[in-house]
Amino acid sequence: MSKIVAAIAAGLAMGLILAAQAKLPPPAPKSDAEKAAAAEKDAATKAKDAADLAKAQDKAVANYKKNPAAMGKK
């Protein structure tokens, strides 16, 4: 029984090693339209991230100015 379990475990280990070393085919090249859409999406994401950062910074500044203890005043 233990020889069967050992053989199955060895087979699984070999299968995992071979599967980990397998190479995937290269992705299909993108068309100009797909490249443009990806660039537009990246630009929109970057603009949204910049707007979110500015909003968070404004909120932090407003909180800092609202609390006099943060400025060392009592």
SSE sequence, one letter per element: HH
Q: How many domains, in number, for the residues? A: 1
Helix run count: 2
- What is the helix content? over 70%
Strand content: under 5%
Spans where pLDDT lies below 50 across 5 or more residues? none
In terms of structural class, how would the helical and strand content be classed?
mainly alpha
Distance between the termini: 79 Å
Rg is 28 Å
Give the integer mean of the pLDDT values. Answer: 87
Major sheet attributes: none
Give the overall silhouette. Answer: elongated
Extended strand count: 0
Task: Fill in the keyword field for this structure.
74 residues; elongated; 2 helices; single chain; mainly alpha
Give a verbal description of the structure.
It is a single chain. The chain is mostly helical and 74 residues long. It has one domain (2-71). Helix content is 74%, strand content 0%. The longest helix has 35 residues, at 32-66. It is elongated and about 80 Å long.
Record the SSE blueprint:
Layout: H1 2-21, H2 32-66
In summary, what is this structure?
The chain is mostly helical. The protein has 2 helices and no strands.
